Amino acid sequence: MPPELISADFFTNQHRVRGRIFTGPRRLTDVLNDELSSSVELSGVEVARVIEPDKVIFSCASIVLMKEAIVFAMIKEKRPNGVETRVFKYVDKKPYDVLLTVPPYEISGKLHLRGGGDPRALLMTELIREVGHFVPLTQAQAVFALFPKVKFCGEVAIVNKALLELVGTLEGPDTTP
Q1: What does the H/E/C string look like for 102-149?
Q2: Whether the Cβ atoms of residue 33 and residue 1 lie closer than 8 Å to each other
Q3: Residue 86 has what pLDDT?
Q4: Is domain 86-169 annotated with CATH 3.40.50.2020?
Q5: Domain ranges in the chain?
Q6: Closest Cα partner for 158 from 82, 95, 74?
Q7: CA angle at residue 8 from 148 to 107, to 5 degrees?
Q8: 72 or 115, higher pLDDT
Q9: Residue 37 contacts residue 22 (beta carbons within 8 Å)
Q10: Positive or negative CA dihedral for 142, 136, 39, 164?
Q11: What is the dihedral of CA 159, 13, 143, 102, to 10 degrees?
Q12: Mean pLDDT rounded to a whole number for the chain
């Protein structure tokens, strides 16, 4: 598989940082969960305030973004799921509709969890057991809680678990295809 440069939006408490990141053969989730680095380098960068996400306050060729400052990252376009490159890591999971609050955002989407049973217990167990600091949600929408008209949508939102405040799920797995 050739090296890959993907476009993504990275959200901090106050800014949306749009740029391209080199992921190689890995998923962005894997890059963010790589404990060998505490930052990511982005190229072709545009920075905007979250409250005015379309108003770019500065652009630059590249920046370094500290992972601990990332509240979540969002990929807008659908990408291959990479199962074929993760054959020994892949575990069958069921999607659950969830709401996560990660100040100052409310993020909803589908969290893919292993196993069955009580979704509340499963959710907490899986979030704690999930390897890494970032967890992906598919079909994601993020709302800036201070100004709910400011919304961001994407195929995947990768959320910083260390910043989670509230976690909620529906009663069962999503069964839509």
Answers
A1: ECCEEEEEEEEECCCCCHHHHHHHHHHHCCCCEEEEEEEEEEECCCCC
A2: no
A3: 46
A4: no
A5: 5-75, 86-169
A6: 74
A7: 30
A8: 72
A9: no
A10: positive
A11: 40
A12: 85
